[in-house]
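Q: Dihydropteroate synthase, please. Structure only.
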Amino acid sequence: MVPRVLALKNSADLLKEFKRIGVDGGGMKIMRPKAFLRIVKVSHLPGFCANILKQEMLSLGGDAALSRGSITGTDRHTDCLLLGTFSQYASLSSKLKKQPFGLSELGQEVRLCLARSADRRVPLHLGRRHLRLGRRTLVMGILNATTDSSSGDGMLGASPQRALSLARSMAEEGADIIDIGGESSRPGSRPVSAKEELKRVLPFVKLFAKSLRVALSIDTTKSEVAHAALDCGVGIVNDISALRGDKKMARLVARYGAAVVLMHMKGTPRTMQESPHYDDLMGEITGFLDDSIKKALDSGIRQDKIIIDPGIGFGKTLSHNIEIIERLSELRMFGRPILVGVSRKWFIGRILNAGVSGRLWGTAAAVCAAISGGADIVRVHDVRQIKQVVRVADAIHKRCS
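A: Structure for Dihydropteroate synthase:
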């Protein structure tokens, strides 16, 4: 009779333990939602609503953390941390149906948020290609048609055939997507014109579309560049401005039925690393992405075409980047694929005191951590090496083989 604490990560792990013991099927169904505590944050609630939530959670065996002032009546509004299991949240949602003040709708939103966080089997439709994420992590290979890439891999001036050879190698090494960019987004970089960007990327895009079977992505904030790439058959627009840089971009993506990557960035590439500050890092990122998703949907982009990216290195300090990776699973609340780009980033160089050429294994470690947190797509330069890292990380964290 030796007790031990089990390191179970999810309900699938719990189910295996139930089966080892021989738990009745009905009992499994009842107990699974009770097993894992989930903490849900609700921001800027009226104090009286927060107190109602606390009383309801206490009655269910859960709890809620409020500001001291909201309890004494001195704070009109408060952030609220709900602490409960899936089972308790389901009961809370039912109880709140009869409550006024928007609490009924809040209960449904909490339940939906938790359901999205738990379901990793999200579809991604790319024209004729249909990718189902959650079973394994996809690899996006980077091809920069620039001279000033922070990773030292710019292909500007290279012949289309040389670029095709590199892209073909990426595909053979296991890239699921190849992302083509013609404008550097390194800290301090200056924008280039749409004409110059098209001159850089369009020969590559045309050749890749004809010669490769992998999905293609165009890394641009300009609708003119995206339009030309989409005409060639590119299926993803990777927009680091999250549709804010060009007013025509959202409608364009919707018209073509393309997928879009919405990335968080504080400032612009030229200014983003000038002492970035956050009062609530993950709160600001999720709020930004929530607004961006709503903008995309309002513009006619379908839900199953949206990918989100927390923007590692884009207006973030070393500690910010680490915190994002640690708390990446919080972005699962949106129920959309999460793309993470850590490859050769400066924060890895800062940790290792290494130049760009010495950041491969630091990148590998960051990729593993991102996959553990729920990344669905990793954007990398070294496809062959990172593909091996991804396969092992998936075998551990997603139970793939």
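A: Brief note, in case it's useful. The chain has two domains: 36-118, 123-397.
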